[in-house]
Amino acid sequence: MPVVSNPLRALAGALISVLAVSGCQTLDDAGRVIGRADLVNDLAARLDRSTELTYSADYQLPGGRNASISQSQDPLRAAYTYPGGKLTVTADATTACDTSTRKPTCTVTAPQAANAEPSVAIFADMRKRGLVAPPVVVGLLTAAALDPDATIRQYDTTVAGRHATCVEVDQLSDAETAAFDACITGEGALGSFTGTVDGTELEVALSRYRDAVQSGAFDLPAGAGLIDRRADGQPPA
User: Fold this and answer.
1) 7-228 maps to which CATH number?
2) Residues 46-82: tens digit of each pLDDT
3) Domain segments of the chain as ranges
4) At what angle do helices 134-145 and 30-50 cross, to 10 degrees?
């Protein structure tokens, strides 16, 4: 399997590389910065380990809406299902589906190049519709760790019957990201997230976690129209 066949691992790796530098920053309160770096490094490491797992997680959103994250290793792929949309990421393609209309439409694009700068832009649509991806949460923690005005409080809790490490972040300099609260389970799954990101209010809570993926989790929505924007025009894996 190619070393960079997992776009999600590339995202997590880029975040971890940033975190590794954060502990060396010289700010007014060095002790507090080091504490932040330790915390986000731990959470980033959990996220990195989770890319090696096969699992499915169900989430509850406000208004009785639901979302899910599924990931498998053979073949390596991940799927995010959320109100009005679905995103599937594989080594061969990124497929974004709009399921808000009677006939769903899926747009297939080429996977991120191995030497490209990792980007969390592929998660923008799902965030607007209520689901935040783990790499986005780690990115927020990274920014908070480097923000001298931010305050971070750590606590432990239980989410969907699983232990989780949580952080409550406030006083951020970034006006687009208000205070937020995030919990990550011991496996590295997103346990919960509450906050405002890029002007979108988010409230996500894990309701069920399984060490397996149901058949069909990575299938395109039934009856979906397909727009293939890859140069080779190969069907999505």
Assistant:
1) 2.50.20.10
2) 766 777 889 999 999 999 999 999 999 888 899 999 9
3) 7-228
4) 170
